[in-house]
Amino acid sequence: MEKALGVINKVRFYAPRRTLNMLYNAMRVSYISYCNVVWAGTYRTITDPIRLIMKRALRLVTSSTKQSHTLPLFLSTKNLNFDQVSVYFTANFVYKQLTNKLPSKYKIITTLAATTRDKITLDQIHQKQTFSSSMYIARDQEFGICY
User: Fold this and answer.
1) Which residue of 35, 50, 67, 90 has the fewest C-beta atoms within 10 A of its own C-beta?
2) CA neighbours within 13 Å on the CB side: how many for 102?
3) 31-63 pLDDT, tens per residue?
4) In Å, how far are 23, 49, 87, 126 from 83, measured between CA atoms?
5) In whole angstroms, what is the distance from residue 19 CA to residue 30 CA?
6) Closest CA to 4 of 24, 33, 18, 34
7) Model pTM?
8) What does the pLDDT look like over 81-99, one tens digit per residue?
9) pLDDT reported for residue 118
10) What domain of life (predicted)?
């Protein structure tokens, strides 16, 4: 992403704002949508560098200072921030899955997950709950906790 940021930085004095905005959108969409499943489910400390690069690129596009807040810049350029883009692509994926518009390779994954999930019977779940609750009761009796 930093290479794309360098491209925007080099051409920002020669290209109009609309072209810079198109470069920013191309960078943002290609990097964020490619690994959206990973970005949406990971910790914020992992995504903070990406977030900062996106904010810096937006400041370059709008010719703003380094200290300027990015929320008004996102609103003025009608771009989505990192979190909004992540939510958008996740919602789009879920919609396609619910309406059966995903490619066949994703349908195989979801059917495998469903068959694996269906193999767990209620008896197995009940056995786990009984074991864990009896373990807690034994622990409480050991420490003299009465209910």
Assistant:
1) 67
2) 17
3) 777 777 777 778 889 889 888 888 988 898 888
4) 20, 13, 6, 39
5) 17
6) 24
7) 0.62
8) 888 888 888 888 888 888 8
9) 52
10) Eukaryota
